[in-house]
Design a protein that fits this description.
Blueprint: H1 2-32, E1 36-37, E2 49-54, E3 57-62, E4 66-74, E5 79-87, E6 93-97, E7 102-105, E8 113-118, E9 128-132, E10 137-139, E11 153-154, E12 163-173, E13 176-186, E14 191-195
Antiparallel strand pairs: 1-2, 2-3, 4-5, 5-6, 6-7, 8-9, 9-10, 10-11, 12-13, 13-14
């Protein structure tokens, strides 16, 4: 009988230690990343976006590989062109006109581009952002022309983080865009937002 009691006590102590260890590891995991949960079924996630709920707020992360551009002045031909800002199969960001000719290759972006986003043309100054496979963020200025030599520049103050999601958010007031924000998600599901001037 004493042997059975001793075995039972050893089993209970072992179970308690395993349970405590699992609880401690779960708390450690939760402290290093934010709470990601499923988006409600009735939420209408926009096309070309991945929608996630982080800390009870829904975010739309761009999954765009192509952005149609309807008005762009081409200084090389002294005319306006229509085309697409596109990520090639090799991860290069290019601007291609409607006839399939590459008018600009953004070679200053060294790593593969995985996602792009832009403000719509209802905004005064359309601008673009790009996310690379290394988690770097590039953007243009609102008044920058896509066909200039290097319209994209790296956002240096964010170079200490690796980002996995990117999107632009804004409000339209009286026919103008305002409160323009770049939203970024890092590899621990922390969300960084900053306003564009």
């Amino acid at each position: 009988m004493k042997k059975i009691m001793l075995i039972l006590i050893v089993i209970l102590v072992a179970f308690a230690l395993v349970s405590y260890n699992n609880l401690y590891n779960n708390e450690e995991d939760n402290s290093s990343s934010n709470n990601v949960s499923e988006v409600p079924a009735d939420y209408n996630c926009p096309e070309d976006y991945i929608c996630e709920k982080i800390n009870n707020k829904i975010y739309n992360w761009s999954n765009k590989k192509n952005i149609y551009v309807s008005k762009l002045f081409y200084y090389g031909g002294n005319n306006s062109v229509v085309g697409n800002l596109r990520i090639t199969s090799g991860g290069h960001l290019v601007f291609i006109d409607n006839s399939g000719i590459v008018l600009s290759n953004y070679s200053n972006i060294k790593n593969s581009v995985v996602s792009i986003d832009s403000l719509t043309e209802e905004c005064d100054g359309v601008f673009y952002i790009a996310l690379t496979s290394k988690g770097e963020v590039y953007r243009t200025n609102p008044e920058s022309v896509l066909l200039l030599r290097t319209p994209f520049y790296k956002i240096e103050e964010l170079s200490d983080k690796t980002f996995t999601g990117i999107s632009l958010d804004y409000k339209v007031k009286e026919g103008k865009c305002s409160d323009i924000k770049i939203k970024l998600k890092d590899n621990k599901n922390n969300v960084t937002e900053f306003t564009i001037d």
